[in-house]
Amino acid sequence: MLSVILLVPLAACGDRSGAPAARSGSNAQGGRAAALPESSTGAPAGATGGGSVAAAPAPDRTGAPRALFIGTSLTAGLGLDDPATESWPAVVQQLADSAQIPLLVVNAGLSGETSAGALRRVDWLMRERYDLVVIETGANDGLRGLNWDSTAANITGIVAKVRAANPGAKILLAQMEAPTNMGPRYTKAFHDLFPRVALQTGTTLLPFILQDVGGIATLNQGDGIHPTAEGARIAAHNLWPGIRFSLRNP
Predict the structure, then answer these.
(1) Catalytic (active site) residue 26
(2) In a domain? residue 12
(3) What is the DSSP letter of 160?
């Protein structure tokens, strides 16, 4: 089990207001990245995940499978210079483009959100159709020491709402870990809830997003929680094999 030693404020995975980090990205036609307007619910107004830093035009993603990334500030790219190109979902977009795998990433990361908040927000997000939904939630639950059974119930509810709105969508759940200062009983129970929920709901479990990143000072920002651009790139590579497999196996 991988855990990260974090002695931090309770709202460490987002700003105190819970407002979403600034997001931008490629539009649905696969054009150049542009700033996205914010909705009152914190839902994405369009697709993110722009291409590489090079000046070459972004690939035409018209008709590509749409992938929604529901997450916290880790997904939103809080603190990065350019979340549109440096957040881990943006790097997933770049990896898909490089592999010539059709994909349109929509980044719905929201800073400060707990699994309960994600459950409330998912109805809004599901107003659009998606072929793939990646769920990264629970980080703030673990930091705050929230009840692990409640977190499991919230994630189960998120999966149910996604399935009801998009019956054909593939759903992937990222493993999360609680900080070790919460004690061994809590960290084990928190770790175990993710494979249990994945098994019970028939979703695909992805590796811990911060594997080989958490606890490494050079790969994290000053708060010791949010990854740097290089850390986010490693996080994307942690999850990319499972995402790629799902895209290649309808």
Answers:
(1) no
(2) no
(3) H
Cα separation, 177 vs 180, in Å, equals 9
Tell me the per-residue pLDDT of 40-54, one tens digit each, with 9 for 90 and over: 334 453 444 444 445
Catalytic residue among 73, 87, 115, 246: 73
Catalytic site includes residue 81: no
pLDDT digits (tens, 9 = 90+) for 29-41: 333 332 223 333 3
**Annotated catalytic residue, options 87, 141, 191, 226:** 226
Q: What is the CATH number of the domain that holds 37?
A: 3.40.50.1110
pTM of the full structure: 0.79
Question: Is residue 136 in some structural domain?
Answer: yes
- The count of structural domains within the chain is 1
Find the domain containing 154 and state its range.
Answer: 27-248
Q: Which residues of 102-119 are buried (b: 16+ CB within 10 A; e: fewer)?
A: bbbbbbbbbbbbbbbbbb
15 among known catalytic residues = no
Is 10 inside any structural domain? no
